[in-house]
Predict the structure.
Amino acid sequence: MNKLLNFLLIFPLILFARINPFEPVITPENINIKKPKYFHKVIVYLPNNARILKKIIFVYQTLDSDIKQKEISINKAIDFHSPIIVTHNPKNFSMKILKFPTFKLFIKNKKLFFNTKDKLLRIFFLTEPFRLVLDFKRNVDFLTIQKKVKNSFVKKIVVGAHSGFYRVVVYFDAKYSYKVKKDINGVLIELR
């Protein structure tokens, strides 16, 4: 009787069990991440009774999805016949190539390519200031190298040798989200 009762209690659990309990039940439909299109220009015509532009308020979304705003006080006369034009020209950074003892680093347009055959062991980020830390597998011995980068979203690179690996720390001008792609030629990091 006791065995029958145990069987009746456990049997429904077996029916609803999955092979991999950590596999999500619902699979996402859109797994492709699309790059956002940059805002370039907007033209605004004010009503014919507008005479003084008091202020402009920009409402924006941060990397953490917070909604914030920035208010700019103008308080100047305007001609309603002429539009107000707001333009945004995304900055294109020129190509930078940095050589280190174990790899070459190519930096351009919010992309970093580490040209190396060494295996990427781990990657993580630290805040205050925002920086990415990459550990590559290789036994090397060299003094810590620090290179500053001018006119770039990358501020400086610090490379140091450790036992069995070397560490690359990339300091940025702001906080970014990032995507990592690995191939036989190295590691590509795309920032957003």
